[in-house]
Predict the structure of Hydantoinase/carbamoylase family amidase.
Amino acid sequence: MTRALTETIDRVLDGVNAISAPGPGVTRPSYDPLESRAHAVIAEEAGRLGLTVERDAALNLFARLPGRDRRAPALYVGSHLDSVPQGGRYDGPAGVAGAMALAAALIERDTPPPVDLVVTVTRAEESVWFPASYIGSRAATGRLRAEDLAVCRADTGRTLADHMRAEGGDPDAVLRGPGRTPATFLEPHIEQGPVLVEADEPFALVTAIRGGLRYRTARIAGTWAHSGGAPRHSRADVVFALADVITAMDRHWAAILAEGHDLAVTVGRVDAAGPEHAFAKVPGALSFCIDLRSNDTAVLDRADAVLRNEIAAVEAARGVTFDLGAPSRSVPTPLSADLTDRLHAAFGRQGRAVRRMLSGGGHDAAAFAQAGWTAGMLFIRNQNGSHNPDEAMDRADLAEAIDALAAGLVEACAP
Amino acid sequence: MTRALTETIDRVLDGVNAISAPGPGVTRPSYDPLESRAHAVIAEEAGRLGLTVERDAALNLFARLPGRDRRAPALYVGSHLDSVPQGGRYDGPAGVAGAMALAAALIERDTPPPVDLVVTVTRAEESVWFPASYIGSRAATGRLRAEDLAVCRADTGRTLADHMRAEGGDPDAVLRGPGRTPATFLEPHIEQGPVLVEADEPFALVTAIRGGLRYRTARIAGTWAHSGGAPRHSRADVVFALADVITAMDRHWAAILAEGHDLAVTVGRVDAAGPEHAFAKVPGALSFCIDLRSNDTAVLDRADAVLRNEIAAVEAARGVTFDLGAPSRSVPTPLSADLTDRLHAAFGRQGRAVRRMLSGGGHDAAAFAQAGWTAGMLFIRNQNGSHNPDEAMDRADLAEAIDALAAGLVEACAP
C-alpha cells in the first residue's frame, strides 16, 4: 500500500469533516455554503495532484487523471459530501477520499489508469434536505427535471433552483444540458448496516440498490379533549391511532420478510409535541413520516397497499383522519453485473473472497445506473450504521479496499 | 332569574377571556402576570358589588358577602382562572363567573346568604405548568409543602416560589400559614366530557373526583441507524417500541373497563421530532408523557404495574431502554355526600332531577375535600370537552345552575 493512499484518505476526511454546522456530529446541508466549502477541499487536493478540475452546471465536481486510452469511456469514482442533519463523518466523504486516494496511489506509482480516472463529487445526495432523490447525479446524467428544481429545502423553505444559484450553479443550464456521456461509475461507500462488522470483512461488492417509497409529511387529525373528561368511547386519539398503524405494519413487515422478500419500514419522525400538546389533553393532531424500502418495486407497492388498508381500518375504528401527503419514490436498481463480476474476479486473484450484497440505502450509483451508465459500488465496513454522529469506519478498511481496487484496475476496467 | 345574574356572568367571562397569551384559544399560565390580570378583573367586579376582597400569601382571592349567621363556617364558591396552553374560555372562569353571579343575584334580591358567601378564585389549578396538583387550593388549606415551591414551570424553568414572588405572593408565609379554617367549598365547573350533552341536561352534581398518576418526562433510548441499512433484527427503534406499549395499554384499558372499573389512559405528547429525527433514520431517542386516571387508587396502581410489565417486555424484545422519570400523583377523592344530598334535594323540590356523576378531571374541590372541608361540585354542560380552544358552554346553562343554587341556598347550606 502506498503512503500517498493512506495520507490522502486522512487529509481528505480531516479536511472535509472540519466543515459542519454546529451541533452533534456532522451537518452539511445540500446546496449549502458548507457543502460548497467541502467541495473546495477536494478541488484543492486535486490541484495538488495535478488533476484537471471541472464543475458542471449543477456544481458536481470532476477531477480527471488521464488514462492510457483517452478515447475509451472514463472510469468515474466518487460519492457525495452533503450529510443528513447530525450525521456522521463517513457517509459520502469515505467514497470521495477513496477516489482521490486511488488517483494519488496511481500517480505515486507512476502507473496511469487504463482509462481516464475521474474523481467525482456529486451534490445533494441526501434527500432529507430536498424531497427528491439523487439530485446531483441526476443532473450530471441529464435526468433532473424542472419540477425537481422547484422543490424546497426542508430547513430554509427556499427552492432547489435558488440554492443552486446561490452556490454558483446554473439551473437553467442543468435542464438544457444532455448530461455527460455514459461511462462507468464506481462508488465506494460505508455500509450502513452491520453485515460486514458481523462477518468481520473489510469491504464488499454491491449488487443492487433498494428503492424507497416515502411519505414525508403525513398527518393525522382527531379530536382534542380533556384526558380525564373524555370517556374511552368518545375519543379520536391520534397517538393511539398511529400506534395501531405502526404495530400493524410491524406485523406485515415480519410476514413479508418471512416470505423471503426484502423490506424495511421506518417511522423516523413523530411530532405530537407542539405547543397544543400536553399530558392532560387527548391529542387531536400529529404529523409523522414513513419510509418503506425494498429491492423490489412490487414489494413496495404491496407494502403501500397494506399501509393504506391498515389506515382505513384505524380511521373507521377510531374516528380519526389520515392524510399521507405526497409520496416520493426511488426505484430499486440493479448495478452492473459485468462490472461487479470483473471486480470480484480481480479481487479473487488477489486471494480475497469478497462478498456480494444488497444496499439498503439509496446511493448516487443508482442514478448513474438508471441513466444507462455501467455502475458499481464497494461497501466499506462501518460500525454503528450511518446517518448518525457515531459512524465509525476504520480508515484502514477503506485503504485496503482502494489498494485492492488499484491493483485490479486494469483487469476490471480496461476497455 | 335576575338580570344581575346573567349580566355578571357575561361581564366576568368577557373580562377574563380578554386576557390571554397570543395563539389559538386561551393561554393564561399559572402564577403568570396574565393570571394576575384575570384575578384583578374579579377584584374589580367584587368592588363594584361592595364585597370585601382579601388575598392570601399564595395570592388566592376571596371576596366576601356577609351572611345572616356570621359565625357559622362560610360557603366558599369559585374556581380558577389559569388555563392550559391553547385551552378554552370556560375551564375555570365559568365557576368564578358563576360564584360572582350568585353574589350579585343575592345582592340584587337583597337576600343575604344564610352564611358568609366567599367568592373564591384559586391560583395554579392547571398542573400542566408546574408539575404539582392543586397548588393554590393546597396553599389556601395549609397543605402546600416546601418541595412543591421548588418545582419549575414547564415553559420558563423558574421555580414556583420565584413565580409566586414575582406576582406579589409570599411563599415563606404560605409554608408558615395554617391555612383557612375548614368550611364549605362548592365549585361550579364545565363538564370536560360529553355526558351532559348526550343526556341533554344543563347541569349535574359531582360525587367524586378521579385521581391521576402521570409520567410527564418519560424517555426511550434505542439505537440511531440508517433506515435502509439497518436490518430488522438489528434495530432498537424507539417509535416502534412506544407503539408496542401504547397498543398493549389500550388492550389493558379496555379489559379493566370491562371489569367495571374506572380508568383513562392518555399519551398526550410524543416528541420524536428533534433536529436529529429524519425520515431516513431509525429513531434512537424520544420523549413522551403518559397520564393514568381513575376514581380508585387500586386501579391506578394496577395500571401502573401493567405499564411497567409491558415496558419490561418491550425492552427485552426490542433492545431499547425506557426511563419513565418521576411520577406525579393525585388521589381519587370523594366529595361530601351530605352537601351533594342536600343540593340534590333542594334541586328536586324545584322540580329538577339533577344527575350525580363522577368527575374525570381533577379539580380544586378535591384539594379542599382532602383538607377536611365539606366540598362539592356542580358540572355545567359543555360541548367539545375542555383543555382546547373549542370549549363551548352555553352561558344560559351556567345561569340556570346558579339560579337553582341561589334558590336552594338556605336549604343546602344553612348551618
Q: What stands out?
A: Chain A touches chain B through 76 residues (CB under 8 Å). The two ends of chain A are 25 Å apart (CA to CA).
